[in-house]
Amino acid sequence: MARYKHIDVSPRFLAIDLKRQLLPGTFEHALDHLLDHEIDLSALDARFKNDETDASA
Q1: Where are the domains of the chain?
Q2: pTM for this model (two decimals)
Q3: Least enclosed by CB within 10 Å: which of 3, 21, 28, 53?
Q4: If DSSP codes are grouped into helix, strand and coil, which group holds residue 56?
Q5: Where are the alpha helices (DSSP H) in the chain?
Q6: Which pLDDT belongs to residue 12?
Q7: Which residues, at least 6 apart from 3, have a Cβ–Cβ distance to it below 8 Å?
Q8: CA-CA distance, 35 to 37, in Å (whole number)?
Q9: Cα–Cα distance list, 24 to 16, 18, 46, 47, 54 (Å)
């Protein structure tokens, strides 16, 4: 049986558009760029893979 996490359909927070919040020249913008484009995260993907038997996603 598939294991799914319950999704709250009544959010209590405002939606955030990160592309508008992460201003160029800030540390947060640089970190976002590094994580998306420069750093290889495949080792984390392999370690935390939970397709069928691990914690729900």
Answers
A1: 18-47
A2: 0.52
A3: 53
A4: coil
A5: 18-21, 27-33, 42-47
A6: 72
A7: 55, 56
A8: 6
A9: 17, 12, 31, 32, 38
Spell out the per-residue pLDDT of the chain, length 57, in tens.
456 677 776 767 777 777 788 899 999 999 989 988 998 878 877 776 666 666 655
| Burial (Cβ within 10 Å: 0-12, 13-18, ≥19) of residue 22 | middle
Query: Computed over its alpha carbons, how large is the radius of gyration of the chain?
Result: 16
Q: Going by C-beta distance under 8 Å and a sequence separation of 6 or more, which residues neighbour residue 29?
A: 22, 23
Determine the Cα–Cα distance for residues 43 and 21; give it in Å rounded to an integer: 29
CA distance linking residue 55 with residue 48, whole number of Å: 9
Residue type, 54: D
